[in-house]
């Protein structure tokens, strides 16, 4: 998607689907004819490419320029710098920005975005509003959208990240993040080893740092003290 957007940032090719598949095939070729690629991934990507070809012209309407893999940063005090890399930012003729994020896995629930449990796009909107992306002045953010590269069903899906407007999400994300930074900047704030529930539960199934926190050791000790 990055290569396609860079190559055709100003004008779409005559055959969008075939141009996108050709780029994908160059990457699939590196896998040396893997049976999984042939049987599953390539047909799935072909379905996505067909969906993308039908929907991309609509996204391009009124777009003046496009930023791809845009690097952004914003200083928020306490020596804390927020950084992000946006998959795609479309700048409209009126100067407003639409921020897109490509997802191959399950899309975050709308409620998670509105509640800032999934804060990626609201934080990117904050950086854009503050002029933190290179080659982009301060601007209003009109859309925060996911493009689901699934290859299933119709091949793809596009939807708003949340129900709340981007400006409100950006403002709320800023306030909550500044509060969180201040909280952990306090030397007396304990860094507790606790598992978060809800949408984060599955994220700990493969925790590379679990052994450093000695979580299992402490849990075993608590069990022995309770039942010993």
How would you describe this structure to a colleague?
With 228 residues, this protein is α+β, with helices and mostly antiparallel strands. It starts with a helix and ends with a helix. It has a five-stranded mixed sheet. The radius of gyration is 21 Å and the shape is globular. It has helices at 2-7, 16-29, 35-60, 110-114, 120-129, 166-185, 210-213, 215-227; strands at residues 63-75, 81-92, 97-103, 141-149, 156-160. It has two domains: 2-183, Lambda Exonuclease, Chain A (Alpha-Beta Complex), CATH 3.90.320; 198-227, no CATH class.
What are the main properties of this structure?
single chain, 228 residues, alpha+beta, Lambda Exonuclease, Chain A, 2 domains, 8 helices, 43% helix, disordered C terminus
Task: Compile the SSE list and pairings.
Elements: H1 2-7, H2 16-29, H3 35-60, E1 63-75, E2 81-92, E3 97-103, H4 110-114, H5 120-129, E4 141-149, E5 156-160, H6 166-185, H7 210-213, H8 215-227
Helix pairs in contact: 2-3, 5-6
Low-confidence stretches: 223-228
What is the distance, rounded to the nearest whole angstrom, between the alpha carbons of the first and last residues? 58 Å
The tally of strands reads: 5
Mean pLDDT: 89
Largest sheet: 5 strands, mixed
How do the SSEs run, as a string of H and E? HHHEEEHHEEHHH
**Percentage of residues in helical conformation:** 40-55%
What is the CATH first-level class name of the largest domain? Alpha Beta
CATH architecture of the largest domain: Alpha-Beta Complex
CATH topology grouping of the largest domain: Lambda Exonuclease, Chain A
Summed up, the helix count is 8
Oligomer: single chain
Q: Structural class given helices, strands, pairing?
A: alpha+beta
How would you write the strand order of the largest sheet?
Answer: 1-2-3-4-5
Classify the beta-strand content into a percent band: 15-25%
How many domain modules?
2
The shape is: globular
Radius of gyration: 21 Å
């Amino acid at each position: 998607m990055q290569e396609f957007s860079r190559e055709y940032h100003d004008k779409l090719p005559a055959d969008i689907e075939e141009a996108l598949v050709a780029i994908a095939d160059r990457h699939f070729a590196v896998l040396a004819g893997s049976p999984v690629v042939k049987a599953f991934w390539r047909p799935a990507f072909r379905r996505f490419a067909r969906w993308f070809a039908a929907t991309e012209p609509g996204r391009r309407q009124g777009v003046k320029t496009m930023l791809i893999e845009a690097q952004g940063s914003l200083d928020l005090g306490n020596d804390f710098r927020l950084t992000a890399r946006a998959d795609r930012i479309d700048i409209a003729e009126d100067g407003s920005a639409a921020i897109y994020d490509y997802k191959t896995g399950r899309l975050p629930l709308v409620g998670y975005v509105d509640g800032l449990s999934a804060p990626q796009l609201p934080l990117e909107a904050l950086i854009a509003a503050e002029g933190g992306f290179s080659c982009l002045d301060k601007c209003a953010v009109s859309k925060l959208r996911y493009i689901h590269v699934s290859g299933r069903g119709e091949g793809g899906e596009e939807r708003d990240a949340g129900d709340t407007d981007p400006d409100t999400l950006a403002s709320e994300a800023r306030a909550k993040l500044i509060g969180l930074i201040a909280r952990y900047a306090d030397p007396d704030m304990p860094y507790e080893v606790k598992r978060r529930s809800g949408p984060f539960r599955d994220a700990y199934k493969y925790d590379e740092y679990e052994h450093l926190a000695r979580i299992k050791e402490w849990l075993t000790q608590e069990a022995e003290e309770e039942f010993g």
